[in-house]
Design brief:
This protein has 266 residues and is α/β, with parallel strands linked by helices. It contains ten helices and seven strands. The model has no long low-confidence stretch (mean pLDDT 93).
Length: 266
């Protein structure tokens, strides 16, 4: 009797809802087992849903804005001795409002999660992958990375960091057998705007939000193809990213200011 093939293992962060949950679903329906992570109580329900695909799913509830949380996730992901074949570093939060008035603690937490947590987990994952000379890493950036973000200055800056980090790491690892792909969503129909206090803005109330399932599908396909980046998901989002390449930084900032100004939804 032949031994059943071992499914590859994928690690997905921010997987309790939205793009992260849909990325996990993409992995699960394409033959991967999963370690999924988030800090909120919805993670277990998400994991149970994913188990319905036939994948083995371990849910690790940790705060990836802390070093202890990142280390615990990595320990749990590697405890069984199976290599992490693919890692989707997707966890992140937003923050909107005038910088002079927004809580410092919220924005420092944003930096800790979107920047420090991403770098910390990438360090651990890359160190595991390099000796094997194989692996795939997806880093969720944003089209916000292409522009300064008045009324979301810290968030946009964090995504600019993630974008530069992903591209730099990709170039560094180009001969290692490891690929790094940047996922650049536009406005997506998730709870991001509610959690980031952006629901009273034009940006938060636009009817042109993309489906998180479509964003995740395009991100997964780009990852598996080894592509450098993908702007996801709709044609409108792709055109916005393309046209921004030709606008001066001051013009992009002015447009973002109009869309993200508190009260602009009215």
């Amino acid at each position: 009797m032949s031994t059943p093939a071992v499914r590859p293992l994928a690690l997905v962060t921010g997987a309790s809802s939205g793009i992260g949950l849909e990325l996990a679903r993409q992995f699960a329906t394409h033959g991967f087992d999963l370690v999924v992570a988030a800090e909120d109580a919805g993670l277990e329900a998400a994991a149970q849903d994913l188990r319905g695909t036939g994948a083995a799913v371990e849910a690790v509830r940790v705060d990836l804005a802390t070093a202890d949380g990142v280390e615990e996730l990595h320990r749990r992901a590697t405890a069984g001795g199976r290599p992490v074949a693919a890692a989707a570093l997707n966890a992140g939060i937003g923050s909107g409002g005038p910088f002079a008035e927004t809580p410092l603690e919220r924005e420092l937490r944003l930096v800790d999660l979107n920047v420090r947590g991403t770098v910390h987990l990438a360090k651990l994952v890359v160190r595991d992958m390099v000796p094997r000379r194989e692996g795939r890493i997806l880093i969720t950036s944003s089209i916000a990375s292409t522009m300064a973000g008045p009324f979301a200055a810290v968030y946009n800056a964090s995504k600019s960091f993630d974008q530069s980090f992903a591209l730099g790491l990709r170039a560094e690892l180009e001969d290692s057998g490891i690929t790094v792909t940047s996922l650049m969503p536009g406005p997506t129909d998730t709870d991001f705007f509610e959690r980031g206090d952006l629901t009273d803005t034009k940006l938060g109330t636009t009817g042109l939000k993309d489906s998180p399932a479509d964003v995740a599908r395009q991100g997964f396909e780009a990852l598996m193809a080894g592509r450098e980046r993908v702007v996801a998901a709709s044609l409108t989002t792709k055109l916005q990213a393309y046209s921004s390449r030709f606008l001066p930084d001051s013009a992009k900032a002015a447009l973002h200011k109009v869309m993200a100004r508190p009260g602009s939804a009215r």
